[in-house]
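FAQ: What does a multi-protein file look like?

Like this. Sequence, then tokens, then the next protein.
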Amino acid sequence: MKRVFLIVLDSFGIGEAPDAAEYGDAGSNTLRSCFETGKLRVPNLQKLGLFNIDGICCGEPASRPRGAYGRMREASAGKDTTCGHWEIAGIISQKRMPTYPDGFPTELIQEFERRTGRRVLCNRPASGTQVILDYGQEHEQTGALIVYTSADSVFQIAAHESVIPVSELYEYCKIARALLTGENAVGRVIARPFTGKYPNYKRTSNRHDFSLAPPRPTVLDAIQASGLETIGVGKIFDIFAGRGISRTSRTQGNDDGMAQTIAHAKEDFSGLCFVNLVDFDMVYGHRNNADGYAEALSRFDGQLGELMALMGPDDAIMITADHGCDPGTASTDHSREYVPLLIWGGGIEPVNLGTRPTFADAGETAAALLGVAGNCDGTPLARLILRPGTQDLRSGWETLVREAFAAREKSYSPHSAFAVGAALLSKNGRVFHGCNVENASYSVTCCAERTALFKAVSEGERSFSAIAIAGGKTDCAQSEYCYPCGVCRQALAEFCPPDFPVIVAKSPEDYRVYTLEELLPHAFGPGGKF
């Protein structure tokens, strides 16, 4: 495909995750709370399959959904914006980022005061609107900075724009970001400027996030490295500390975010447009405003219709979220919930994707739709959702070949110095990687193809779409066509049909495709001969 628009409805959860109770979020369901207001009008989301998603117990399912639909469970340890977006882009965070339920350490605050030359007020978890009401007057009188946190891994600094100019506030945030490293490496330092007179203070749209850089490359880096554009809309640039983003558009709320996305849709570009719509979380979820949340979703749905009308045959729209923030519970914090995954475009099959084990499947799928191997923590679903003939088969095979070359890098081949990698694509879209593992006793050695096959079978897979094989001498930069041995051909024949594609490659652009029957014309299958 030419363009993918990946839209994150910030905090739009669709029901408690299995581990929600561990996070204090049992019973959370952001979608249900919005639906129960009676103000939710989302015909476009409904047609795409929102209410057809497994586990959703409200709304009217579409009789014939127009998009692929499913739900994703967060695999990362956390429920905040940073780890949610990082996971969408392919990185599962195994360790929770630090939080400060009792405020930040005294020595940290003292050093921050020393470097900024300003005293700190508050230093405890607080609501963003309540904290400026509680400390705004003292801040205006003294020039002290309002520092607070939340249940998330954030260090937030609030200041009145007439007391501390926005540019100066950003500099203070940079000082905090430089301090907050090691065990205090919070996910985000956030500038929270506000205006107005007490008690009618109002936070402005000049908020700015100073995030940690992702710990390793994401699918954004892979897409950008392939020569395609990666456009960030909203706070995407901030969340990834600019990594993997070729250009960015800052926004003034949801409506402006969608307006800018629609403007990008009118451009002629190739690549990914990654969008965050933060108002659902910041303006409605955290303020327990279920009516406002439902109305904002309804406005988004109308703008979604405008965006859909601009899509060409080689475009796709993906809609998901980064966590929940149920406006119907007593908590004002994020909630550990499943998030939706809706995918629509001219070439997308309306299939049920079920429950995906990680948000990372979204980013990997976006990359795969663009013909790029993300090589991150998720599974690309492109093979499940693309209509026959939509994607050039060669492009799909090139992606699989690239994964075989990546698997080859892990080869253990000290005896032959001949490294082989294999990438086996299952019918449900998962890719299993294998490399050859040699042994001084020749019969103990296992080929890359069987490593991948046995790995897949041991995880319950029984149906496969294709396998790519890449091999060559470890002391030579040039690969060569590497054909499966007779044992591997017979092993594949146990699970794969005669027309199963076997791709042998010198490079991602130079490969040959055979059927299994061509390579093993008289194989034994489970029921006898082919």
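And here is the next protein:
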Amino acid sequence: MLCHACHVHLRRDYPYCLHCGTLRKGAKVEAYAAPELRWDTPAGSRTLELVKPVTTIGRSADNDVVLDDGSVSRAHARVTRTANGFEIEDLNSFNGTTVAGYTMHGNAMLLTDEIELHVGDVPVRFAQPRSAAIGSKTMVAGVEHSMLLQPQPAQPGLPEPAPTAGGPLSARPKRRSGWALKQVPDVRGDQQWVLRNTRSGQYLQLDERDVFLWHQLDGENTVRDLLFAYAQKFGELALPRIERTLDTFAALELVRGVHGQREPEKPPLLKRIGRAVLHALLRMELSIKGLDGFFGGLYRAFGWRFFTRTGVALLWIVIAVGLYAAVVAGAEQNLFDIRGAGVGGVVAVGLGYLLALMVHESAHALAVKSYGRTVTRGGFMLMMGMPFAFVDTSDMWFGSRWSRIVVTLSGPLSTAAIAGMCAMTAAWVPEPRVAGVAYQLAFGLYLNTLYNLNPLMPLDGYQALADGLRLPRLREEAAAYFTRGIWADLKAGRRPGLRQVGMAAYGMAAVGGTGLFVLLGFLAWRDRLGGLVDRYLPPGIDIVVIVLLIGLIMFPVWYRLFRKLVGFVKSRRSTAPAEASA
């Protein structure tokens, strides 16, 4: 269900849109916790729940919200609960009411979640409540005083840097600026949080104990203070856990002042160039930032219609009818036969694939916008030597598990719908050349859909499966258990349970699937490069060039395998003298 105002997905167990604050149609506000007005006074922060149909704001004591300030009129403004949500209306006050920087002139304005008002000169915030089922608001710290910037001389009014760690327990860790933290809904009731470095875009999943430690890192508490606070909160002295958590925060550049942490020295120029080349070869991607505004405009213009009940129903109808049409067309059409369409037909098939690829990634992006999240970037990359387009949907870690699954599956389903339309064209359009081209395109797109839904590859199907099983590192854990864990259990006489057997089976399939994927990538690139090299290079040299080019393209694959092999050899060499002396 989408919000009728901003078209972002609604929570069925909550009466308001958590993106724009509009009341859900048919919701009875009295059955839910009320929104709040928050403001500061000399005595501290004040909060008022908007439980009444009309809430008055002013300086006189008979108002519901009393603001004792000279800029506030006796009867200044009122907040009214309407069918569309809560609206504020200025009561012809002397100094006026400002909503999100806009000064009101008699008309009522709808209040959205976390919007800031100024009643006269007094700031007031309208906020909708959160519960464990909804997830807390995202708390964001800015980067205007980022500790990653070059250190500047101390100036009055600027925050002091965190003291350098002088010992394991005397260190005073401090949070860096530029982070966002949010509680993520979990149907099992577990307290799960996501912490993001807003400068690097890295995410970290936390539990309740990690979040407790995070909030203590103010640069004043020492590690000893953290130890005792943790013991008082959770009833155990857990120094190893605290140290591991601090090291993780420091590794993601979220905390400074950790014992043993040193600011990295600037390496020589040649070493920096070598690291840059290695990083480019390992990631091999071309990304474009600043796409959120573009996809946000597309979503507001027409994209939201695909996520309505009607749009989703039509999508499944097209997919179902398209599968039937593919069977019908398969009885008359032949693979790789474009029925005399010639070069134009080949170009049409290629352009069709390109268009379908763009729609696939755009579907991911529009699904992200349907949940009110941000599309950070997009582009092209090489994975195991195979080219792919991508849209970065990592901001969905701030969403629910189900929302991530929807975003993940939106791409393959859009490709299946395009394939279905092509299959219907191939089955029921009488023009043979058009039908032939459409059949080739439909066949390729169905293969693409199955490939993307394959749970053994780190693509859409795998991501949906990992979220569905609540195992974000499914491949790594399954591969580790298959290569080491299950053999250790069998050797020790322990009988693996059903979950362990499933992990081992998936790990075996993932290892085999990865090897097959690498082989297909190698064969594909050898086929693409072989013709060009044979045409322009003499025999003998052509083989060397092909090996070098494929080695460069598939560098991320063999380099990681090489690193693992070197690590294994070093570990065996280090254990050999110990075994000999024993």
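Q: Is there any per-entry metadata?
A: Some entries carry free-text notes. For the entry above: The two ends are 68 Å apart (CA to CA).
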